[in-house]
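Following up on my earlier thread - several people asked me to post the actual chain instead of describing it. Fair enough. Here it is, all 174 residues.
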Amino acid sequence: PLLIERGAAVTTAEMAEAAGIAEGTIFRVFPDKASLLHAAVERTLDPSPFDADLSAIDPALPLADRLEAAADILAGRFEGMTALIGMLRSIPHDDQPHVEMHRTATESMAAVIDSLTRLLEPHRDRLSVDPSRAAVFLRGLVFTNGHPLLAMPGRMSSAQLVEVLLNGITRDGR
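Reply from S.P.:
Thanks for posting it. Predicted structure:
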């Protein structure tokens, strides 16, 4: 929350205070503030909590309800990622950490698709596309709906996104 609130203007003293440690402790682990901020973004990109949250969705729920829960979880993930990545862009960096961060983000997105695919796999026979393709569609709808530069005014609810995903944009589903 501190990084999101203060962005790159946050000081290491503020971070240390928020963590309940001495400022010098930070520099025993990280060589500089930029490295610490990169580590925070990497932690945000870690797909493990997302996967655990998806795994906790009741498999007995109907497909639409499972997708709505997944869309809510995914929207929360994107919101946190967007704020931290926006903050990271304001920090000067050399190319190597930038390349590594891009690789980490790419791997994280692939893991998110894998998790969503596993959620959809039991419903394969009901889907008109492969579960991995449906996962990409869900991710795209949720991302576009929540992105500050792409979303229309008045975001759609997760239920509305799932309705479009499952039934299309026509009234009769054709």
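DSSP finds nine helices and no strands in the chain. That should answer part of your original question.
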